[in-house]
Amino acid sequence: MSKLITALWWKAAALRGLYTALAIALPYLGGAFIADIQWLTILSAAALGFVTSIATSLAGLPEAVGTDLPWWLAAVERTVKTFAQALASGFVGATLLTDVPWSTVVQFALISALTSLVRVILATLPNDPSPAIAMVEAVDGTWTVAPEPESDLGARVNEHQDRTFP
Length: 166
Description:
Number of strands: 2
Mean pLDDT: 78
Strand order of the largest sheet: 1-2
Oligomer: single chain
Number of helices: 6
Helix content: 55-70%
Radius of gyration: 22 Å
Order of helices and strands: HHHHHEEH
Largest sheet: 2 strands, antiparallel
Strand content: under 5%
C-alpha cells in the first residue's frame, strides 16, 4: 500500500484511467451518431471505465515500480484489461442482465480493446532515426544535399529499446 502514496503511481494510474476512459468513450460516440445513445450513457461508461482502471491498477503498475515487461505481454495485458473494463462499463443503466444489449456491449468492448491495442502499438514505435535532409546553395546558385554528419544509429536504437513501456 505504500505505492499508493507516491506521485509516480497516481500519475501512471490516472494516465491509464484516462486512456481507458477515452478508449471506452470512442465506440459510444460513434454509436451516438448512428443510434439513439444518450450523452449521459457515454459519460457514465467512460467514468466507470476510469474507475475500473484505477481499481485494476491497484494490482500493480509495471511503469510505476520500474518493471520492464516484454512488449507483447504489456500489449496483451492492456488489451484484455480494456476489454473487461469496457464490458463492465456496458452494464450502465441495466437493472437485470437481460436488460443489457449484449451485441452492442460486446461490439463496443471489442472496439475499445482494439483502440487500446493500437494506442500501445503507436506508443512503442521508434522515432524516425533518419536525419533531415539539408540543402545548401553553392556559389554558382545551384542547390546540393549537404553532407550528413556521422550518426550512431546503434546508440539511437538502444536508447529506444531502453524506454519503459507506456
